[in-house]
Amino acid sequence: MTSGLQVTDLGVQIGDQTLVDKVSFTIAPGRICGLAGESGSGKSLTALGIMGLLPDGARRTGTAILDDLSLFALDEKEMCAVRGQRIGMIFQEPMTALNPVRTIGDQVAETLLVHSAASRDEAYDIAAEKLNRVGLPASRAGLQRYPHELSGGQRQRVMIAQAIALRPDLLIADEPTTALDVTTQASILELLGELVSEDGMSMLLITHDLAVLAGVSTNINIMQNGVIVESGATEALFRHHRHAYTKKLFAASRHIPRQIALPSDTERLLDVSNLSVGYAGKRGLFARQGPDLTAVNDVSFSIARGESLGLVGESGCGKSTLARTILGLQALRGGQISLLGKNVGSGQHVPASLRAAMQVVFQDPYGSFNPRHRVGRLIAEPLHLLANPPQGADREKDIERALDEVGLAASDKHKFIHEFSGGQRQRIAIARALVIKPALVILDEAVSALDVSIRAQIIDLLVELRVSHGLSYLFISHDLTVVRSVTERVMVMRAGQIVEQGDTADILDNPAHSYTKQLVAASPQIPADWLAAGGQHAKSNIKGGA
Amino acid sequence: MASASRRLPVALVLGACLTMVFLLAAIISLVWTPHPVDALNIANKLRPPGMDNLLGTDHFGRDMLSMLMVGARTSIAVAIGAVTVGMALGVPLGLVAASRHGRWLDDLVMRGNDLVFAFPSLVIAILITAVFGPSAINAIIAIGIFNMPVFARVTRGGALTIWSQEYVLAARVAGKGAARISVEHILPNVANLLIVQGTIQFSLAILIEAGLSYVGLGAQPPLPSWGRMLADSQTMISFAPHVAIIPGLAIIITVLGLNLTGDGLRDLLDPRIRRQR
Amino acid sequence: MLGASLLVASIAIFVMIELVPGDPAAFMLGLNAAPDTVAALRTELGLDGSPAERYLRWIGGMIVGDFGTSYTYQVPVAELVAARLFVSLPLAIMALLLSTIIAIPIGLFAASRHGKPADWSTMGITQIFIAVPNFWFAMILVMIFAIQLRWFSAGGFPGWDLGLLASLKALTLPAISLALPQASILTRVMRSAVLETLTQDYIRTARAKGLSRRQTLFNHALRNALIPVLTIIGLQFSFLIAGAIIIENVFFLPGLGRLVFQGITQRDLIVVESVVMLLVFAVILVTFLVDIAYALVDPRLRRQ
Questions:
Q1: Given an 8 Å threshold on Cβ–Cβ distance, is C210 in contact with A84?
Q2: Which of A171, A305, B156, C5, by CA, is between 20 and 30 Å from C86?
């Protein structure tokens, strides 16, 4: 039996910047220790520091003791023996974390072969066994398969099989489920929990998602700017946190914007009936046509003026295709879309006035903008849809007003997009959508890529704008908590079809359809009674100043 | 981050200097050369580098330095012509192909590209000169035709990346058509790639032109060219090596300078600027 | 796909050679030829008939190995070409092998020593060699190794029947001068491909499993880096062919180059047509082989 990992005063410097400072924590054997924080907090560097995999030029201080082995005192060769054998690590993006040109059998067996733990044949047998253990029996994903043939969840299982092949004492998991769907996330977390309890392995679980940690970790450390600001046993930390940052973080993650009362008798803004959208198989010059895909299958719904309708579903369900079709960017195969009573076609056939009535905000705050244009020009792009687009001073006034409404300064219109942070860029994206005063705004995972605290601010902004401009929203998201707080009604989509729609609170509290039930059950929640007002109790440890 | 220090890459500085030397030599030769290039001076033939003739004389007594300077003109002219032809044909092709990605037009353009690639410049030059006779213009056409698929491919590759960016989707939501988007959004963003590739193709054109002249398919006498200087020098290499070595060095230095400039430009124009997040 | 490319290429060549000069027979005989002679040649060459007919006759002939008869030598072109092919082809292959054998290990080595003297000195050297015209380098090699040191002859080719070793020796200097700039390009491509691969996530995964840097380089980076390198090798082949033709001039090798240049000077369109077709065929074939090689190396490209 091991005595776990003890990290004392770990520090990481790159250049003259200190990115991790005096980080200390203990991971007891057979326990899951959580490390939470927003992007840039230093949590990944901490993990890499423990593994000795920091980028070239980084300096490391402190100590880490695994059992009686002082990790930082080992040379590279000895550390290679530790990695994979006594400490395993899995990463965030299963798509890129596996070598695309080697079979999954090769990659799992490699762990064994590199540590000379088995002969060639034995290694492959053990690899098959480990893959089976993580839920990939040979019937579904044999040793000969390649990573690109598997789904995201399956790839992550392969990653886990690689990492635990030699039954390490400790598994470090750096955002292991962030890139996965909610239901897949739930099953991976379940698998990890099993491995910990059955094999007596300890785990360091790094994530920004507090709800995930609430469900599985024994204790939590909160990191900000390279420092651990607070730590403690999970439930105790949630109930009795003291540090200002922790308070802020917890508040943001359960933030509920003000609720709006909808006027009862409002006209229908968007009407979608029996919509079907498909992709013809790819066809080249001489190649045969590929198989046809149906992305949206017989979908019907409507949005009233001033209403916010949510659309929930996992990746591949067709929600993005639906959004693009409504926007007139994709041809329909069947059914009808009408906005303000007029039919929405696609491509050239959508009149400018109709396009002007609906705009979109995307997920990625970095890719949504041409890096060479100034912000003023970026915001003004939709203006050309107007019959008489404003010129000169009027145009500038419109741009400045849009910036002001989203909480930015008029002078920002002269800057380039890379000068702004992620949250500010989303504000600019919203400004761009608003400048033309549309009736409907489609928000496609608009807050998913943002940190928790920023997300809360943007959600507030969206709610305020809805009131002041009388906007309707189609709010697409995979995050049920966000959807609950921003929408009145919600639709659940799966494999191109709407399986359930209705009042948000109703659907999420009492789901009728089995898939909705699955989604709701899989979404990690922080138990409600833990989130009663954070009291003052000496149970948690605060590090450093507020 | 350290973007404020827009220190120019070393390669760029070095390359630009070398290139400048070559360009200046060509420009100056329009008005002055150390000795007249058309004056034959047999008595003076095959002098090694010395005071009178800085780089020596060739088998007709002509001053090597002057010949080099005038030869530079031919090289530049052919290279500029070839790159222009290549870009003028290739870039629009690449833009169109990228805007119609996944459809038959894209496939057609790509297949056509591969096909033209199969004809090395030399082969195209052979074809053209077999029928029309050798000349500098034909060299420009031959190298230019070969350049076309290079620029088409590079443009298309860069354009495809940009088409998949969300801001292009936003432009489409704003109602802009493919042609407008290609000009407003795609072209400025691939301009960097094209500048770098253009520099590289320019240096390549100089090498190819030298090869063509060497076998007699390029600029014809009396138009001087480095390649032909080398062809003429071949028989004298054992007793007058400088006649062979010097034009070769001129080619090397020029091409090296251009390549360094291209590499330096690539470093300079890189999304390092975009890395300021 | 292979067939389609060849077809289109042949059409392009045919158009250039036979249709553009208007009347090939008149072109071949020159301005002072008597009309009777021209007419006779036209019949002999089978030039009466529509372009489509002539084209089909030409293609049909090629498929059975009849490339027509050289006007200058009055010998079947196929014979002329065959003899020369056995000089040009081995030369191109030798150069290809040489450049690949040099480039891949050095590129790998430079990448593994990224940022250190071994790396940037390799980069500097290759940067210079890329700028070297291969025919000039050939002349220098001849100057040093043939004239001064007398290790090799300055040119000429003994013929394969006079012995394998002697022939290979005659091809050595030419192959080296061809290979040098190619090897330099390939080294740089290999190095950047490996460096690019080393930034990928799966490299980090491999290190986390306990692989040393060296093991990671060979087990993961190398194979993935070969994919872009393959593309370049395929592209470079067309340059190699062009280079081989020029190099033959320096070394007086009786290869395809000499044949086609003589054909141009003598206005022997039949010869030019056939040799160009052959060269283009070689390049298209190599591209095709590279595509196959891709599927071998990258499982994502294999059809299910």
A1: yes
A2: C5
Q: Please write the tens of the pLDDT for every residue from C158-183.
A: 777 777 888 888 888 899 999 998 89
Question: For residues A86 and A168, what is the distance between their CA atoms, to the nearest angstrom?
Answer: 4
Q: Highest mean pLDDT range out of C69-73, C161-165, C223-227?
A: C223-227
Residues A308 and A368 in one domain: yes
Mean pLDDT calculated for residue range A313-321? 83
Q: Does C116 touch chain A (CB under 8 A)?
A: no
| Interface residue C218 vs chain A (CB under 8 A) | no
Q: What pLDDT, on a 0 to 100 scale, did the predictor assign at position A290?
A: 61
| Residue B2: closest C-alpha in chain A | A15
Pair (A357, A457) in one structural domain: yes
Among A165, A199, A215, residue at a domain's last position: A165
Give which of B269, B21, B170 is closest to A380, Cα–Cα. B170
Instruction: Give the whole-angstrom CA distance, residue A502 versus residue A138.
Output: 42
Q: Which domain holds residue A28?
A: 1-86+169-174+181-253
CATH number, residue A45:
3.40.50.300
Q: CA A512, CA A518: separation in Å to the nearest integer?
A: 10
| Structure tokens given for A117 | 């733990």
Q: Are residues A302 and A398 in the same domain?
A: yes
A385–C contact, CB cutoff 8 A: no
Show the beta-strand stretches assigned E in A98-177.
Answer: 170-174
Of C2 and A299, more confident? A299
Q: What whole-number distance in Å separates Cα of residue A356 and Cα of residue A338?
A: 14
A538 pLDDT more than 70: no
Q: Do C210 and A159 touch (CB under 8 A)?
A: no
Which residues on chain C are in Cβ contact (under 8 Å) with B263? 127
- The H or E element spanning position A25 is strand A17-27
Same domain, A145 and A58: no
Same domain, A15 and A156: no
State the complex-level ipTM: 0.82
Whether chain A has a CB inside 8 Å of the CB on C126: the answer is no
Total domain count, chain A: 3
pLDDT at A162: 92
